[in-house]
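Deliverable D2.4 — example input (structure tokens):
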């Protein structure tokens, strides 16, 4: 952060929305676990910082079968308080200190660069058919999480994430240990009255829905044969954690494991 940076600390949601405006020149800081290391390493600079810690954007609310989560809710607060696959995914992010600081909104917006942290909660939120409420140029907007990820978070301030309680859900992942475990691949499954949704994380810059796997299962394919279809939906990439070749080999097996675990949930 430059010495002349403007620092804004809104005390309400309305103040945060007003301070963000159209997002031009604004760097949003939730927990700071992504932005602050970049600043410390002088890999980025900030001219206007919007700090959300006092903006009233944290909290989990259940209304009937609907779950609403404020964008500034720490990941640790999701553990045990939200359904799978989200709860387990949150529990596996970083370590306790990281989970206590990092926010669901920041994690959702993470990724895109080859060596930037991926958003581990993207796949669970896709599997849960979550919607994302944001503000920015043009006012308030509610989008399916896949559309939000595809369009990119630039110019939008995430306020809230909402989804319906699933009937059951599963999250499985492969990690690479370092100071804590970095996710190499993940698979999230969630079943509801609308059917089964499967999503893949950490194979590329953003999470992706595995529609071909879902369709194969609906058509009566075995879990193993359905899992093999995942490479029709996802093209794994190289990064600092793993090669695309390794991910292509491992991903169908991880999907099969997730589908098998999900079947056990109903047994």
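Example output (designed residues):
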């Amino acid at each position: 952060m430059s010495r002349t940076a403007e620092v804004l600390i809104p005390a309400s949601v309305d103040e945060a929305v007003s301070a963000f405006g159209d997002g031009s020149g604004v760097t949003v800081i939730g927990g700071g676990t992504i932005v602050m290391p970049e600043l410390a390493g002088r890999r980025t600079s900030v001219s206007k910082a919007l700090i959300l810690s006092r903006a009233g954007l944290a909290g989990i609310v259940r209304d009937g079968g609907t779950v609403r989560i404020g964008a500034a809710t720490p990941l640790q607060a999701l553990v045990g308080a939200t359904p799978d696959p989200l709860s387990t995914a949150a529990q596996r992010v970083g370590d306790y200190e990281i989970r206590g600081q990092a926010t669901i909104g920041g994690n959702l917006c993470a990724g895109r660069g080859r060596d930037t942290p991926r958003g581990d909660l993207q796949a669970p939120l896709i599997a849960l058919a979550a919607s994302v409420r944001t503000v920015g140029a043009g006012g308030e907007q509610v989008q399916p999480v896949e559309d939000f990820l595809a369009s990119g978070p630039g110019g939008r301030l995430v306020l809230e994430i909402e989804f319906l309680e699933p009937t059951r859900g599963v999250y499985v992942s492969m990690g690479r240990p370092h100071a804590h475990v970095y996710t190499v691949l993940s698979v999230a499954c969630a079943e509801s009255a609308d059917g089964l949704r499967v999503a893949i994380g950490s194979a590329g810059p953003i999470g992706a829905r595995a529609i071909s796997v879902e369709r194969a299962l609906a058509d009566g394919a075995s879990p193993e044969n359905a899992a093999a279809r995942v490479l029709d939906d996802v093209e794994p990439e190289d990064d600092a954690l793993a090669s695309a070749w390794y991910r292509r080999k491992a991903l169908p097996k991880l999907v099969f494991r997730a589908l098998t675990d999900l079947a056990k949930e109903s047994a």
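The longest strand covers residues 181-192.
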